[in-house]
Amino acid sequence: MTVSPSFRLARQLALGIPALLLGGAYISEYGFGLHPCEMCWWQRWPHFAAIALALLSFRLPRRELWVALAAVAILISGAIGGFHAGVEYGWWDGLTGCATIVPQDGVSALDSIMNAPMIRCDEAPWSLLGISLAGWNFLVSTAAALAILILLSRSTTHAQA
Predict the structure, then answer these.
(1) Are 94 and 37 in contact (CB under 8 A)?
(2) Model pTM?
(3) Contact assessment for residue 87 and residue 53, using Cβ atoms and an 8 Å cutoff
(4) Domain ranges of the chain
(5) In this structure, CATH architecture of domain 5-160
(6) Is residue 92 within 8 Å of residue 122, measured between CB atoms?
(7) Is 122 helix (H, G, I), strand (E, B) or coil?
């Protein structure tokens, strides 16, 4: 069975965009010390799901469905990122307090918790052009999800013609 160029690009985006965004998140965390708050983690989970769903499209029937579901997962991450960016910019209150990073350095759990840095969800630790990481996730994820869905609609339209 042949795969349309629109579907191929949609699947590549559904697999590549979340992988790149997660890669960037982990590089910023482990390479630059920008530890994630709780709401940052909320944005990562849909990207993990999107990668899994996009991979399913290589093996399971109804491959367009799996890519569409990946796009929905990417869009959910973008929506969470938009909400988180609004919390960082002070547009509205968040749903959570702060998350801590508990070091695994062999000390007691209580000492680790008491000495761990507080990571605030309402403060952007980094920005580019005035846009926080959560804001960039919103912009990139939302645009990518919409592009994937448009490409999928083109691939099914061409398949029916």
Answers:
(1) no
(2) 0.81
(3) no
(4) 5-160
(5) Up-down Bundle (1.20)
(6) no
(7) coil
